[in-house]
Amino acid sequence: MKIAINTRFLIPNKMEGFGRITYEVTKRLVQNNPNDTFYLFFDRAHKGKFNFGKNAVPVVLPPPARHPVLWYIWFEWSVYRALKKIRPDVFFSPDGYACLRSPVKTLLMVHDISFIHFPRFIPFLKRKYYEFYTPRFLKKADRLITLTNHALKDISGFYQIPEGKFDLTTVAAHGSFEPVDADLKKQIQKKYSAGEEYFLYVGAIHPRKNIARLIQAFNMFKKRTGSRFKLLIVGRFMFDNKDVLSAYEAAAFKNDIQFIGYMGKDLYAVMGSAFALTYVSNYEGFGMPLVEAMNCHVPSITSNVSSMPEVAASTGILVDPSNTEAIAEAMHTLVSDEKLYQELRQQCVIRKRDFSWEQTAYDVYQSMLKLCTRDGN
Largest CB tally within 10 Å, which of 242, 243, 304, 324? Predict the structure, then answer.
């Protein structure tokens, strides 16, 4: 087969979310299928950073697509011309965007429709782009692949797309997420939490992530227990976060709350050294930090809504994300119930085996094969 892949999120030293999925899946597709030719569509020069194999052909298509107007130009002109010239059997787009003008069979990976459920948290122009183009992308795609049953049913139900058009896969954590030894844990705690145990949040600091309520719950937990625990919040500020800053300023124990910002290589050790992940988002299509935590044998406190129960399964405590009291009580339960805590750690050891990049790449390739058979539609 000749396979074209949208790899615009493969940017050196800036791979998060879509970029990580694109990297892990594309690398394995290229290496596991040497008889196929893969055309990798970049929107900027990459200086050979992503040389996955001799059967991978990099194609740089300007302009850099980081704005709704440029998204349109890139997909409907640059990608369209490349597809017309190459004439691949399949075009795979792992970030949910498609080329509407091209007749090439398209496999689209769709992640969630958070802009439908929380439109006020999306900048105006981006929201309008998503609202207008997403249903068109979904209709255009010959097959869709998504990461959880919840996301599948959410997207299928809202847009009235037959579930038979979807395939299901999952994604995994970076291999550096693993349990840490006692010495490293001590070093990390000394560096980031004044030598104390800590709860950890990892992800964008965004209103949908419910961080203001997490801060309030942590403050409640501290007030009730007198615990020396800290709360580390790792991630970039995005959109309007006045509620997060207000909750922080109002917290009696704000000195025990640390905003770390974006974190590079230390993140693996910080996750592995955490007492528990606190991930009480209001909505997720998947929730990668949950898998990263279980890879480190770190239990989680997470939400009982959207995809999070499906991903976390029995590796943590599920709570109503709108209930501050419930979040605080879950913190108290984990700290006070050693038996439960160790049981959850053991569940992490078991559950992490269900997430594999090799499986993801295999599932994506099988979806491609469906498009290259007579009844693939």
Answer: 324
